[in-house]
Hints:
heterodimer, A: 186 residues, mainly alpha, elongated, B: 98 residues, 88% helix
Amino acid sequence: MGxxxxxxxxxxxxxxxxxTEPPVADGVTTVxxxxxxxxxxxxxxxxxxxxxGALFSLLAVIGIIRMPDLYTRMQAATKAGTLxxxxxxxxxxxxxxxxxxxxxxxxxxxxxxxxxPIASHLIARAAxxxxxxxxxxxxxxxxxxxxxxxxxxxxxxxxDVDPSQTQARPAAGNRPPPxxxxxxxx
Amino acid sequence: xxxxxxxxxxxxxxxxxxIMVVLGLGILMSVGRMLRGPTLPDRVVALDLFxxxxxxxxxxxxxxxxxxxxxxxxxxxxxxxxxxxxxxxxYIERRAKP
Lengths: 186, 98
């Protein structure tokens, strides 16, 4: 690892070999006292953030493989994936330990936090419009009956509902919650 | 102290390669969902996750090769990912209404 392993550029000049030498008199490049622990703390923070990020990314992938229908899959991929990738990028920023790189990394994290919910909302909306089937065990559908009519996408973007063409959704819609078994699972 | 630092560095290299392996497995599994997914929105969600994992891989790769300029590639990739997902959502909506 060639680059500095500190938190900020201030701590970059404190490397391991210098810790055993007597402090230099100019006092600019040598930081004495508890700041000497900061490079190790930066590496520690980077390691923890990277491991957490990798685990959350793996959780997102497991969710997208194992979940039963589109909507649950999408929430697993979006939430866990966003947190995982954000932790990874913050860990990379803590590893490099320079302010400019940290700024760029924060830019990526901010961008992901802004765009991922919007993108997943658009996908879920489109999928609901094209009647993507809902899992059988889903007992609550708050949009049931709202978008089942003939949809028109022309005009000002609002959705005109023709009540004469309203038909029931193939899914069961809102049902009472099924009773739980003794394990608390449905 | 020097040997300690070298072993710590080796430990971190191992950690980075382990994270690369985890992210690579995740990319393979999301590609599997992309190939298998019963509907088009499933594939789009898998593509979204694929792109996010690719951004993570790019960041880890910038650490391994010690080139922090690669983070810019992550910015651009996140941007293109968002635009692509929005375009797919619009396409799915328009396809339902001829």
